[in-house]
Design goal:
Mean pLDDT: 87
Strand order of the largest sheet: 1-2-3-5-4
CATH architecture of the largest domain: Beta Barrel
Number of strands: 10
Low-confidence stretches: none
Radius of gyration: 28 Å
Shape: rod-shaped
CATH topology of the largest domain: OB fold (Dihydrolipoamide Acetyltransferase, E2P)
Number of helices: 2
Length: about 180
């Protein structure tokens, strides 16, 4: 009876992450268990489609099959130091320790780059089926030589067109090359 109670008590524990190896098929973590025990290379099972590389000091929930502390799995890692606070019920967020986040709010999706660039890569095109507003400068680095949209408008709208009667027109400014 006492052995069964001890096995039951050893099924679950909390721990603190002390190391991490994200290069394996199943991420491995080093842990300091609540009782001070040290465990290395414990498998961290992550939900399909989601992965993270937690900082040392993050907290983990660990399960041990049949209470056998020789082999366990980490089923959850959390880090209260960086967790976003104040979400409304039903809201969801992905975040990191650098202040970057994507939050599905009640009012819409908010992407916070944490002061770093947001880069979209490896896609044949980006499609926006909505109006686009920008409060910052938009720069054309493809054919506008890095000019802002305002600078390009100034260059190409800085002259007047006069219709010549046949659908064509003339301008009062010399030819201006693109870019």
């Amino acid at each position: 009876m006492a052995a069964n109670l001890k096995a039951l008590a050893n099924l679950f524990t909390r721990a603190v992450i002390t190391s991490l190896d994200a290069g394996k098929k199943c991420q491995a973590v080093g842990l300091k268990l609540i009782a001070g025990d040290i465990k290395e290379n414990m498998e961290h099972l992550e939900p399909y489609g989601f992965t993270s590389a937690a900082q040392n000091g993050a907290e983990a929930a660990v399960l041990f099959s049949a209470g056998d502390r020789s082999h366990g799995v980490v089923i959850m890692v959390a880090d209260r130091r960086y967790r976003l606070k104040g979400l409304k019920r039903g809201e969801v967020a992905v975040y990191d320790d650098m202040g970057q986040s994507v939050t599905l709010t009640r009012a819409g999706i908010v992407v916070n780059g944490g002061g770093k660039p947001i880069t979209l890569t490896n896609a044949p095109k980006a499609r926006f089926e909505m109006d686009i507003e920008a409060t910052g400068q938009i720069k054309d680095l493809c054919d506008g030589a890095g000019k802002t949209m305002a600078a390009m408008r100034s260059t190409y709208n800085g002259h007047t067109h006069k219709e010549n009667g046949d659908g064509g027109g003339t301008t009062n400014a010399p030819d201006q090359p693109m870019g």
